């Protein structure tokens, strides 16, 4: 029997992939955009869940402008913190499972080796702090939930680093990209599959879900240009040479344990995911 799955933030890059994945599995998917359901409004969230009675809620709604969050901290905490809390409390009332998507930016990047799910967080920026607030609020609500941390997302239907590099490469033919920040690029299609399989497992908890392997933004850009067949004059630079409003962790690689022990697999290498994404993009 098909389950009713509610996807919030469904018009976004990850929301689209999650909607498609559960749809492929024959589930009854209800997709709500930010305009259709404001997760910062508890009364609206409670009313929607009481009316729709989903078995699973996947929260893809988020304030993702990392630099913008520095100047709009209240908005970031409303969407990334209070919103997930509202969903968690409403899910508990209707006995629905909540999947909340979080980020590698809850870590400060000082560890120098992959972060485990229980390593102590220490976010460097407002965005990371707001996402951590949301994680803790979801756990505190006490319902059945998954907290899924991921990183460096790219996929169809949204702004992302791959699209930015393609635009720069075709428009300017030259780019400077930071070479001292290391993380795990992750394709939304692969993340959506893992989210669905985690839900299927019923083994609630915190998980790190990224494509396998790690890279720097500079190396990621080089791979994008190579696979896209673009000749771009690419130059590395340090984080210090490319100042941004929000500080970024220099090392935010996530250790996937116990993902394989739960779903039976790890996500494919990021380079394979990138090649697949670019190939599908051209169709």
TrEMBL record:
Family: Belongs to the dTDP-4-dehydrorhamnose reductase family.
Task of the protein: Catalyzes the reduction of dTDP-6-deoxy-L-lyxo-4-hexulose to yield dTDP-L-rhamnose.
PANTHER family xref list: DTDP-4-DEHYDRORHAMNOSE REDUCTASE, METHIONINE ADENOSYLTRANSFERASE 2 SUBUNIT BETA
Taxonomic path: Bacteria, Bacillati, Bacillota, Clostridia, Eubacteriales
Enzyme Commission designation: 1.1.1.133
Cellular component aspect of the GO annotation: cytosol
Keywords on record: NADP, Oxidoreductase
Pathway assigned in UniProt: Carbohydrate biosynthesis; dTDP-L-rhamnose biosynthesis
UniProt keyword Ion transport, yes or no: no
Molecular function GO labels: dTDP-4-dehydrorhamnose reductase activity
Enzyme class: oxidoreductase
Biological processes, Gene Ontology terms: dTDP-rhamnose biosynthetic process
Keyword Calcium: no
Signal peptide positions (record): none
Domain RmlD-like substrate binding: 4-280
Protein name: dTDP-4-dehydrorhamnose reductase
Highest taxon, organism lineage: Bacteria
CDD domains: dTDP_HR_like_SDR_e
């Amino acid at each position: 029997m098909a389950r009713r799955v509610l996807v919030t933030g469904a018009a976004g890059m990850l929301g689209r992939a999650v909607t498609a994945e559960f749809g492929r599995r024959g589930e009854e998917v209800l997709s709500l955009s930010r305009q259709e359901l404001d997760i910062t409004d508890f009364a609206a969230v409670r009313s929607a869940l009481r009316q729709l009675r989903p078995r699973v809620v996947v929260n893809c709604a988020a304030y993702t402008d990392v630099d913008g969050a520095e100047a709009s901290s209240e908005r970031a905490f409303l969407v990334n913190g209070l919103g997930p809390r509202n969903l968690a409390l409403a899910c508990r009332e209707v006995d629905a499972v909540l999947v909340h998507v979080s980020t590698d930016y809850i870590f400060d990047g000082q560890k120098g080796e992959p972060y485990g799910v229980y390593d102590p967080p220490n976010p460097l920026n407002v965005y990371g702090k707001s996402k951590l607030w949301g994680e803790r609020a979801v756990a505190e609500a006490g319902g059945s939930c998954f907290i899924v941390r991921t990183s460096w997302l790219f996929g169809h239907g949204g702004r992302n680093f791959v699209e930015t590099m393609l635009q720069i490469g075709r428009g300017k033919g030259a780019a400077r990209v930071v070479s001292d920040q290391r993380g795990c690029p992750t394709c939304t299609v692969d993340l959506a599959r893992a989210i669905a399989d985690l839900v299927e497992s019923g083994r609630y908890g915190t998980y790190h879900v990224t494509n396998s392997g790690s890279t720097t933004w500079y190396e990621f850009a080089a791979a994008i240009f190579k696979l896209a067949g673009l000749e771009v004059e690419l130059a590395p630079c340090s984080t210090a040479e490319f100042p941004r409003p929000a500080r970024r962790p220099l090392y935010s690689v996530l250790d996937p344990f116990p993902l394989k022990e739960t779903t039976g697999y790890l996500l494919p290498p990021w380079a394979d995911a990138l090649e697949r994404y670019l190939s599908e993009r051209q169709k």
